Amino acid sequence: MIVVAANSYRGRRGPRTRVAALVRALEALGLPVRVVWDQAERGTTLRSPAALRSVRCVVAAGGDGTVSAVINELSADVPLAVLPLGNENLFAGAFGFEDDPGALAGAIARGTRQRIDLGRAHTTAGRRLFTLMLSAGFDADVVHRFTRWRTAGGAPRRAGRAAYVRPLAAALWSYPHAAITLTADGVAVDGSHCTVANLPDYALDMRLAPEARADDGLLDWTVLSRSGRVALAGYALAVARARHTQQAHVPVGRARKLTLRSAGPVPVQIDGDPWGFTPVEVEVMPAALSVVVI
Q1: Which of 150, 155, 162, 127 is nearest to 280 (CA)?
Q2: What pTM, to 2 d.p., does this model score?
Q3: Which of 8, 107, 155, 187 has the most Cβ atoms closer than 10 angstroms to its Cβ?
Q4: Domains of the chain
């Protein structure tokens, strides 16, 4: 049985058409399929080891938010595949998953898989696994603002990248750039923004941790030491040019465990979703997830 955990994106026809194409491709290969659109049903299914006993693969059909939800609900060692349908598909891009239902069905049928690390974080919002990254500081504040706007009034609004302009502008105007201390392997580093990465890719094709790998048993951390709007603009330019790690005021490192602390609460985001505030405890979970090889 193949379980497709799909994000309907509030009734848009495109995702349903692509999921239907994947179902046809899988069934043509003799693989039975169950599609789950409802979030509550998805959680019930993935959190039940008994329900997953006969499942050969779980397909996250959506963006990075859907992938994040699936890995945090998955209660058994079942391989993961991705049909990328979201605004951001960083995880899918990192492992070669494209919007090609036929190719994806073939890879699932072949059954080749690889194991990758996950990060596990504990913030004021509780525990959460991540595939991509965790950050605390300015960008997390933008994510918090965006999510408050998107979810105001009930069901989440449909939103693309352009919807980030307003929360980004608001954060540029009012975010206080509070100091954060990252401690790893007994070494403490102060800064205004901290990123802990399992994979190198970040939003807008930026790479804050360009050397990060998901199969080395380590998490890569990056600290931006200087604070304020002018410093932030300089860092954005340096990251876009892939030169930030050459700067003395951008310390980087690798660790299995680390903490982020601050005098007051600093917003945290995990894989593009808000996840509470500091303090944060982070650790790597080596080879914790099995991923289908394309």
Answers
A1: 127
A2: 0.94
A3: 107
A4: 2-111 (3.40.50.10330), 119-287 (2.60.200.40)
